[in-house]
Amino acid sequence: MNPEEILYPISKPSKGSSGPTWMWRFTKPVIYIDKCTKCGLCWVYCPEATINILENGFPKIDYEYCKGCGICDNVCPVDAIEMVNEYGD
Amino acid sequence: MSMETRRIRKVLSGNHAASYAVKLANVDVIPIYPITPQTTIVEKIVDFVENNEMKAEVIHADSEHSAMAAAIGASASGARVYTATSSHGLLYMYEMIWWAANARLPIVAGFVTRSIGPPWNIWSDHNDYLTLRDSGWIMFFASSAQEVFDMTLQAFKVAENPRVRLPVGVAWDGFQISHSFEPVELLRQEEVDAFLPDPRDIKPLLNVDEPISIGNLPIATDNMMFRESIWRSMERARDYIKDVMNEYRALSRRNYGYLIEEYKAMDAETIFITMGAISGDAKIAVDKLRENGERVGLARIRVIRPMPVTDLVRLGRIANNIVVIDRNVSMGLGGILAREIKSIFYDFYVETPTYGFITGLAGTEVSPEDYIKIYRMVLDGEVEPSTNIWYYHGGVMK
Amino acid sequence: MIEIRWHGRGGHGIVVASDLLGEMLLEKKLYTLSIPVFGAERRGAPVMVVTRINNRPIMKRSAESNPDIIIVTDRHLVDMVDVTNGLKKGGLVVINTDEFDEELSSIFKDFKVAYVNAVEISGKWGLKLSGLPLVNIPLLGALIKATNLVNPDVGERVLRKHWKGDLGEKNASVFREAYEVVKIVDES
What we know:
The complex is a heterotrimer of chains A (89), B (398) and C (188).
Chain A: E1 10-11, E2 27-31, H1 41-45, E3 51-53, E4 59-61, H2 71-75, E5 81-85
Antiparallel strand pairs in A: 2-5, 3-4
Chain B: E1 9-13, H1 14-24, E2 29-32, H2 39-50, E3 57-60, H3 64-76, E4 82-85, H4 87-102, E5 108-113, H5 127-130, E6 138-141, H6 145-160, E7 168-173, E8 181-185, H7 189-195, E9 213-214, H8 220-252, E10 260-263, E11 270-274, H9 279-291, E12 296-301, E13 303-305, H10 309-318, E14 321-326, H11 336-347, E15 354-358, H12 368-379, E16 389-392, E17 396-397
Parallel strand pairs in B: 2-3, 4-5, 5-7, 6-7, 11-12, 11-14, 14-15, 15-16
Antiparallel strand pairs in B: 1-8, 6-13, 10-12, 16-17
Chain C: E1 2-9, H1 14-26, E2 31-38, E3 46-54, E4 69-72, H2 77-80, E5 92-96, H3 102-107, E6 112-116, H4 118-124, E7 128-129, E8 132-133, H5 136-147, H6 152-162, H7 165-181, E9 183-186
Helix pairs in contact in C: 1-6, 5-7, 6-7
């Protein structure tokens, strides 16, 4: 960066610019596919875009970058997501 | 000349002069929220749009904060954007004002100065506008309806320059200029089109094909470099503003000087420094004093940011006394212009006694007789060189 | 420089009238500056406009004035406001009143007076706003007659340009009628 130039405070979206953020995780979300109704709310609400919708319509979590915030668990209307302790009980 | 090539002269208020400049500048988006004494600017613009004299998107926002937020969004998409406000509206907009500068958006805004309450007051002083002074906005200040028109056009050219890319504010006094009617000569559409850059050349930050985030968290050193980049652009703007004003002067045949306007200052022993509507009365006082052989002159500040440092230092070296008229006050410090000018003088070893008078607050009168009284107070040694001499119309000292 | 001070109330239209006077004088390449002074910024409250006319750009923007002419839109303003304050000796008073009685005669004894019943003229041509007759344009007609500042034909043309169609016709008509019927008394 050179302050002689006009610097714009902008950034392009890129995968994992802060490194593999799974290391920030204490609890991780687990999806119970048998309960899932494919509503897609977890995909909408994930703040880090680490939930992808598969071809069959079910969500899949990218555990490399999921930080374990638990928002998906919170918004799931049918309790199909549970947060489990990363390091066991 | 045939009728088609002649410029139109109209009797306009300062606010309507701004509206005409916005129309001629082919502004794309005008997000607005009404407040006295700004409202008549956008009322006129809405008239233009409703009558199909102007093609623009007017956004009736739900607050000044939202109006500037909409201006930011529109400007980031590459549109030419104008908005305007006053006083409490400016303060409500304040967070977004900084956002606009830090995001390097070439928004142009009209700021019609008005006293800040309580108590309730619609008349002019400059404290509302001067809150912008650390934000990264380039700050113009006009003193007639004609100058409002001229400066508003110049503002777009300065803001959009790829080496500047900063928002520009154009201020003028509420009522004394905003609602006072006087003849204004308008440029013709072809002249404005040739003077201003093509709005399609504004580099958009946002592009649907290449998504970006604006304002994402950077590391602190980068963040500091963003600020230095604004600082450097502001420094470059000082020369570029002069270039733009020079080009405009050749086009319009109107001469106001550049960052400052000087009036009989060249050989003056005492120089008044003023800003805005009250400068005209000061010129009359200068004329009257000169008739009695007094060597007095005037410098009117037209651009406050970037500050006209070189001009002020030169005047400080010419004069034996500098008398700064502040239509504002920084509580606990003094008149803002007087304080800033004194600090510049200190940098350049200018030791000329500098007197700061605080006057004209809340729209109180400052007449030619007041300037003459102030002059006498300084020359007769009735006041010390301080920056907080409170002067009331008629000479009542409190 | 000629200074005119208008005394009216919010809603009387003196700001518009002074603006239009500027338009009329523009045709004579004269500079004008009309500075409004509102008190309460409300309909009915006393308001003031100072109009300055000169053959070169006008620098003075403070409202303090020593007018050559005052215009009073409502005779009751005389009881509320010191309308003649600073008016030059032998100056002109243009006033809207149904009669120039002894009271007015004594108040304005040092001045030249042009009086016209602007309410009646506007009422006759149906020029009303929110039920109140608009007195500004008849007073402008009276002013032009008493001062000869511009040719009344120019005045009518400016009014027709400002208000298109029927409204322009009505304003031009009240302007012309007031110009013709205004009575001028010079006791100074």
